[in-house]
Amino acid sequence: MKGIKIRKMEIGDIPHVLEIEKKCFTTPWSEDALVTEIKSNKLAHYFVGILDDKVIGYGGMWFIFDESHITNIAVHPDFQGYGVGEAITRALIDEARSNEINRMTLEVRKSNIVAQNLYKKLGFKLCGVRPEYYDDNREDAYIMWKDIKR
């Protein structure tokens, strides 16, 4: 999708991110959790996708030693399938790489084939399973890793 801009998330983005969370997840993050991530969590790095001055997606990760753990990526349902998630994920990878992170990991629902295909396209490999990882329905999560050394 042309015109998408990716930038670091700011406190003023949180109401829009909360709207996306509620539309995309059965157990969305709370406002307090997001504020803590942006203001207090020194390990956290979050980005938003903007189209026409509107937040349409976001993603975040934590840096832990020389690894990055992607905590969440979500795109407003009206804008899914247009490359927004890919642009945000690429921004996360670039940020990790520029901070000398060597590897990235994430969990993805076993049923979320679209996300799995995106991550595979970007070089993530399936490395394991977390049984009954998701609280809402006890669904398993696939663990994926990507080596991002320069």
Radius of gyration: 15 Å
Order of helices and strands: EHHEEEHEHEE
Distance between the termini: 28 Å
The amount of beta strand, in percent, is 25-35%
User: Biggest sheet, in brief?
Assistant: 7 strands, mixed
Keywords, separated by commas or semicolons:
single chain; 150 residues; alpha+beta; Aminopeptidase; 7-stranded mixed sheet; 4 helices; 7 strands; 29% helix; 35% strand
Describe this structure in words.
Helix content is 29%, strand content 35%. The chain is α+β, with helices and mostly antiparallel strands. The protein has a single domain, classed as Aminopeptidase, CATH 3.40.630.
What is the fold's blueprint, element by element?
Blueprint: E1 5-8, H1 14-24, H2 31-39, E2 44-51, E3 54-64, E4 67-75, H3 84-98, E5 103-109, H4 113-121, E6 125-130, E7 141-147
Parallel strand pairs: 4-5
Antiparallel strand pairs: 1-2, 2-3, 3-4, 5-7, 6-7
